[in-house]
Structures are given as C-alpha cells and as structure tokens.
Design goal:
Layout (H helix, E strand, L loop, with lengths): L5 E2 L10 H11 L10 H21 L6 E4 L2 H11 L1 E4 L4 E3 L3 E4 L4 H6 L4 E3 L9 H8 L6 E5 L11 H10 L3 E5 L11 H4 L5 E5 L10 E5 L5 E2 L20 H17 L4 H17 L4 E2 L10 E5 L5 H10 L2 E2 L6 E2 L2 E2 L3 H5 L4 H6 L1 E4 L6 H15 L11
Parallel strand pairs: 1-14, 5-6, 5-7, 7-8, 8-9
Antiparallel strand pairs: 2-10, 3-4, 3-11, 9-10, 12-13, 13-17, 15-16
Helix pairs in contact: 1-8, 2-8, 9-13
Bound molecules: pyridoxal-5'-phosphate.
The site of pyridoxal-5'-phosphate has 13 residues, from helix 3.
C-alpha cells in the first residue's frame, strides 16, 4: 500500500496480507502439476488441499465441498449459467428459474439477464414478503442474494432468507464476497442455511483473480461445469489450478478466520468518521446507518457534492475512495443499488464510499475529512432538513 496515500477503498480490493504474500512466493517455486502423481505433483497438491481446508473453515464448510475458481465473477457465472444439481440433500436440479436480489453485484445481472428480481426496501434489505410471494408463483427457484452489499455495506439476514427459500423448495446461493473480516461474529453463522457460498480472495487480503464456490453438502454441485477441462476440482472446474493464487487465498482465509470477530477498532474508526462527517455536513446522508451493515463501510452523500468531481479531488489529494462499485473502465455510472432502494437523485449522483480495513490509520480518515471539508468550503453547513 502506498504509505503516503490514504487507501480507503477496501471493498474494491484489500491490500495483500504478508501471510498471503509469503505463501504465494513459496508456491511460485513448486514445479509440479497437482494432478501428477510424482513427488513434485504431490507437493503442489498439498498446497491446494491445505488452502481448501482453510477456505472451508472460514466459511464453515467441508474441504471436499470447496471449488476454486478465478474469482467471484466466475463462481457467479458458473452457478447462474449452469444451475445446481443434487441440491439441498434432495435430488433437486435448480437453475431453470432464477431469482436474484435487486442490489446484487453487476456480475449477477450480467450472468442472468432473464432473472426475476427480489426487491429491497428503502433500508436496502430484501423484502421478505415479496420474495416469499414470488417464490410460490412457479417451480422451485435458484435464488442468489448477497451477504452484504459492496456499495452500502448493508447486510442481509441469510438464515431468515434461507428459511423462506427452502420453504418454497428452492436453493439459496450467497455471494459472501464482502463478508470476511467485516462482520461481527463468525462468518459461518452469518451464512447458515445457504446451499452454496461464493468468496473472492482479494477482498480479504488474498490475491486478485482467485475465489471459491463452497457447497453446503457433498450432494450439491454445479449441474455441469462452466469451464470444462481435465476433471480438476472434482470435475467442477477444469484447468490446472492457480497454485500461487490458491495458496495466497488459503493463507488469507486462515489469517481472517484466526482474527475472529471484527476488531472493535474497525467499528470505532467508522463511527468516528461518520460523527465527524456529520459535524462537517449535518445534512449528509449515510446509507444503512443504524441498520445491519458491514463494520468497514460508509456510503454517504452530501447535497450539492457531485461524486464524479469529488473523486478526482480526493485522488489528487492522496485519498483513494470510490463512488460505490458503479465505476467501471474509468466511467462512473449511476448506482443500481441506490436506485433499487428508491434513493433520491442527488444521493445517487453524490454517493461516495469510504471502506476501510485493519491497516487503516486514524490519520487516513482525518485526511479524507480534511479534503472533504475543503471541497465543501463556501457551501456552509446545513441542517439535514435542507436536503
Ligand atoms: N460480488 C461482490 C459483492 C463484489 O463486491 C465483487 C467485487 O467487486 C464481486 C462479486 C466480483 O468479485 P471478483 O473480483 O472476484 O470477480
């Protein structure tokens, strides 16, 4: 991480943990292919299997049910394009009918353009009554809902949603990408009831370009592999495994799992930031404040402040933050997440996201607030009713 800059964009990608870097460097020197039976092959295989156990432990699953992928986007595509077979302890194949949450990651909508949408309320939480009503309208559905939103940090109650989906005979796949290290309490408990879970290493201190699809039991599998190949990953994902990437993911999973519940410090930093923010701009609106959300995320909007212009000023002043995940290929697009929540246009246009992690320093957030205060100079502080 560049020392002089304040990196406040952990939801986009977290810095690599030293443990992950060390594991990757060691794995780079493995000559063997994990599918080979000689000693070199077995050494590479041992790295993959050790990492598989670490990732399973983090998500509360069994190692044999972990499939490594090139990231969450691939796992999302595999599930939505191929469907699940043998699901939920029954010989159920789901995937014909797909329902996805209205605030899912863009990859979900791109992979399942014809999916039905489960709406959220203004609080960003899935409307449970609407989901239940939709589920009974047709055959058992494959439902994909995220544990927590990457833009707002708003967190869904997965056990409750799983109950609703299962009552209608469906299966629930959870995009838990933003969860590790960012929620209070064990990740496994937060994912209770999910039929499959998706993780991405680079959101919790592992490398970019590696992720995992974790099934709840040994019968649940992809109906067919998205990437067909030489039978790797128990036939679920072809291609020689990304040994350094997988090693890095395993080491990061172990570190996050060992750290246990979210350090109070993260919550303290976020809350202090939000208090100061309200001091600078009393009319600032903070998404999900007071509701269930990640410990590390503040999405806020201030009337009169354009996210697009503000982002450039922040960057020039050495502060890296984001306007939500709506920025792709350098172009800022209006957030579908805030739109789905029925947010006002000024909120959609002005929303800025600060997302932090264990290495964030108090001075990083102070610098962010100072740059923000400079941008608001001349505007005057206004009470919230003016918004
Ligand atoms: N799902 C969520 C909630 C995300 O935040 C992201 C990354 O931004 C993804 C999926 C995609 O993850 P990956 O970068 O591993 O493809």
């Amino acid at each position: 991480m560049p020392g002089a800059r304040a990196y406040l964009d952990w939801n986009a990608s977290a810095p690599l943990l030293p443990e992950a870097r060390a594991a990757m460097l060691a794995a780079l020197d493995e000559a063997g292919n994990p599918s080979s039976i000689h000693a070199e092959g077995r050494a590479a295989r041992a790295i993959v299997e050790a990492a598989r156990a670490e990732v399973a432990a983090l998500a509360g699953g069994e190692a044999e049910n972990v499939v490594f992928t090139s990231g969450a986007t691939e796992a999302i595509n595999a599930v939505l394009r191929r469907g699940l077979g043998g699901c939920c302890g029954r010989d159920l194949a789901v995937g014909e009918r797909v329902i996805v949450g209205a605030t899912e990651h863009a990859a979900v909508f791109a992979a399942a353009a014809a999916a039905e949408i489960a709406p959220v309320g203004p609080d960003g939480l899935i409307d449970r009554a609407a989901l239940a009503a939709r589920l009974v309208e047709g055959p058992p559905a494959l439902v994909m809902i995220q544990l927590a939103n990457n833009e707002t940090g708003i967190r869904q109650d997965i056990p409750a949603l799983a109950g609703i989906v299962h009552a209608a005979g469906g299966a629930l796949v959870v995009d838990a990408v933003q969860g590790p290290g960012r929620i209070a309490g064990p990740l496994a408990a937060a994912l209770d009831g999910a039929d499959a879970v998706i993780l991405s290493a680079h959101k919790f201190g592992g490398p970019k370009g590696v992720g995992a699809l974790i099934f709840a039991d040994r019968r649940t599998r992809l109906a067919s592999a998205l990437i067909a190949g030489g039978g790797q990953e128990r036939g679920q994902r072809g291609g020689t495994e990304n040994i350094p990437g997988i090693a890095g993911m395993g080491a990061a999973a172990r570190a996050v799992h060992a750290a246990g519940k979210v350090p109070e410090r993260l919550i303290h930093l976020r809350d202090t930031f939000e208090n100061h923010l309200n001091h600078i701009a009393a009319d600032a609106l903070i998404a999900g404040q007071g509701g269930p959300r990640l410990a590390n995320t503040s999405l806020f909007a201030i009337p009169g402040l354009s996210a697009e212009k503000a982002l450039i000023a922040f960057d020039l002043a050495g502060v890296a933050l984001s306007s939500g995940s709506a920025c792709s290929s350098g172009k800022v697009r209006a957030s579908h997440v805030l739109r789905a929540m029925g947010a006002a246009e000024w909120v959609i246009e002005g929303a800025l996201r600060v997302s932090i992690g264990p290495a964030t320093r108090e001075e990083d957030l102070e610098r962010c607030l100072a740059v923000l205060a400079r941008q608001l100079r001349g505007r005057g502080n206004r009470p919230r009713s003016a918004a």
